């Protein structure tokens, strides 16, 4: 008797198996697998949880570095049950993987020649996070018990650094230990946010297809107040959106304290649906309560309402400018909309920009985010390897005809963002008229 041919699994059925009731299905390269039994022991921790109920091809390939990808495919064959293919109309065009294969091979060889590997230097991130956490707690103590304004400023700076550290932890870039990565990722919860909501929004939605409208939530994150993508409709108030953004960045951390609860209740962050377990809810509520005690209740009790709330607000505003100001310049630039049909790795390059590529100093200051192209290609790589591999990534992009956007400095990147937003803010008729006006003779 011939074996039964696996039936196609529609996306609607796949989405029902997102971890609820212990059932986790993932789609990889157009094929659907049941990974429920392997989920609890998965060495990547939350990564399998993030991929449950959806096409997880980008998560799978980008988070398994070097030879780890081949090992992961072998493990998948042993521990997962193949259920069937996605329907043809539900499959994402895979694109040409030639660049992806080449850049991974070249980066791996470059690291080996220097006595390094894909997980080297993770200890620097861990040590920096531990030091920033300790200093933040000291500054917080001085702020609420001594009423120090300088300590409030220091708290904001250090909280911003903790935000960059949580970025590494949630990406699994703090080494091989799932517990260590989870601990650093929980700094997001400690700052008043939710590491689960952030991971869905950032790792699934944004990293999945950067700057692709309808997939990347960051394209619409401030809509309709701000127009970040040329595919969004224009509104009259977008003419002042550069100023609006400068003001709006200040409330980023405060927004998390409320918006996370809304996303958890809805089970959705923009275009990405997810399942929030009771354990996830308990974690969020516990850390929100801790945040309220640390930054509202105790400061008000010890310093009085005016000074207590003002010092907390000052801390949150400074931290927001550090965190969101570092992120915002990497994707909100002209010419960063990837065309359809590209392989996911090529999309990461086309939809992303760097500043001061190759600079170790800029890499430390930005938490590795000045090397946004390298980060999108190798999100689980410790950030202190990015300056080492940047020349290889740049050269490989050139060999394959892909743009390697690199601004000379953060200031130049920020000015590029401002120019782009100003252009998107102009009325479409004015923009078309100016574009059609012939250039003056030389």
Oligomer: single chain
Percent helix range: 55-70%
Supply the helix-strand structural class.
mainly alpha
The string of secondary-structure elements, in order, is HEEHHEHHEHHHHHHHHEEHHHEHHHEHH
Which runs of at least 5 residues are low in confidence (pLDDT < 50)?
A: 431-442
Sheet bearing the most strands, described? 4 strands, mixed
Number of helices: 21
Number of DSSP E strands:
8
Overall tally of structural domains: 3
From the spread of the alpha carbons, the general shape counts as globular
Query: In percent, how much strand structure appears in the residues?
Result: 5-15%
**Span between N and C termini?**
80 Å
**What is the overall pLDDT average?**
90
The strand order across the widest sheet is: 3-1-2-4
Radius of gyration: 23 Å
Question: Can you give a write-up of this model?
Answer:
- Strands 3-1-2-4 form a 4-stranded mixed β-sheet. A two-stranded antiparallel sheet has the order 5-6. Strands 7-8 form a two-stranded parallel sheet.
- The protein folds into 3 domains: 82 residues, Cytochrome b5-like heme/steroid binding domain (Flavocytochrome B2, Chain A, domain 1, Roll), CATH 3.10.120.10; 115 residues, no CATH class; 207 residues, no CATH class.
- A hairpin with a 2-residue loop joins strand 1 and strand 2.
- It is globular, with a radius of gyration of 23 Å.
- It has 442 residues and is mainly α.
- Helix 7 runs antiparallel to helix 8 and helix 8 crosses helix 15.
- The C terminus is likely disordered.
């Amino acid at each position: 008797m011939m074996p039964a041919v696996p039936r196609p699994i529609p996306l609607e059925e796949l989405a029902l198996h997102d971890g609820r009731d212990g059932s986790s299905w993932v789609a990889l390269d157009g094929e659907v697998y049941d990974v429920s039994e392997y989920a609890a022991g998965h060495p990547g921790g939350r990564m399998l949880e993030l991929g449950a109920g959806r096409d997880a091809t980008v998560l799978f390939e980008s988070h398994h570095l070097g030879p780890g990808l081949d090992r992961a495919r072998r493990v998948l064959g042993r521990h997962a049950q193949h259920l069937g293919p996605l329907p043809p109309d539900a499959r994402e065009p895979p694109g040409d993987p030639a660049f992806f294969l080449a850049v991974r091979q070249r980066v791996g060889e470059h690291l080996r020649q220097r006595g390094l590997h894909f997980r080297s230097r993770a200890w620097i991130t861990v040590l920096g996070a531990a030091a920033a956490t300790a200093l933040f707690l000291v500054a917080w103590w001085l702020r609420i018990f001594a009423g120090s304004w300088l300590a409030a400023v220091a708290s904001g700076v250090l909280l911003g650094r903790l935000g960059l550290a949580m970025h590494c932890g949630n990406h699994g870039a703090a080494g091989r230990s799932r517990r260590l990565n989870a601990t650093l990722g929980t700094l997001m919860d400690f700052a008043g946010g939710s590491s689960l909501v952030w991971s869905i929004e950032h790792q699934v939605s944004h990293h999945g297809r950067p700057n692709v409208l309808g997939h990347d939530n960051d394209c619409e994150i401030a809509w309709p107040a701000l127009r970040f993508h040329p595919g969004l409709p224009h509104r009259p108030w977008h003419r002042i959106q550069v100023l609006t953004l400068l003001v709006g960045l200040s409330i980023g951390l405060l927004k998390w304290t409320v918006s996370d609860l809304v996303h958890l209740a809805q089970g959705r962050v923009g275009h990405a649906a997810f399942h929030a377990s009771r354990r996830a809810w308990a974690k969020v509520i516990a850390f929100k309560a801790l945040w309220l005690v640390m930054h509202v209740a105790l400061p008000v009790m010890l310093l009085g309402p005016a000074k207590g709330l003002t010092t907390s607000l000052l801390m949150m505003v400074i931290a927001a400018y550090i965190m969101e100001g570092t992120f915002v310049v990497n994707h909100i630039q002209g010419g960063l909309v990837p065309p359809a049909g590209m392989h996911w790795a090529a999309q990461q390059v086309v939809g992303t920009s760097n500043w001061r590529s190759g600079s170790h100093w800029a890499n430390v200051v930005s938490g590795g985010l000045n090397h946004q192209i390298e980060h999108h290609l190798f999100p689980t790589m410790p950030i202190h390897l990015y300056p080492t591999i940047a020349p290889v990534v740049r050269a490989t992009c050139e060999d394959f005809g892909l743009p390697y956007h690199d601004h000379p400095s953060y200031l130049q990147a920020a000015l590029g963002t401002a120019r782009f937003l100003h252009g998107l803010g102009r009325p479409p008729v004015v923009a078309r008229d100016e574009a059609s006006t012939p250039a003056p003779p030389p």
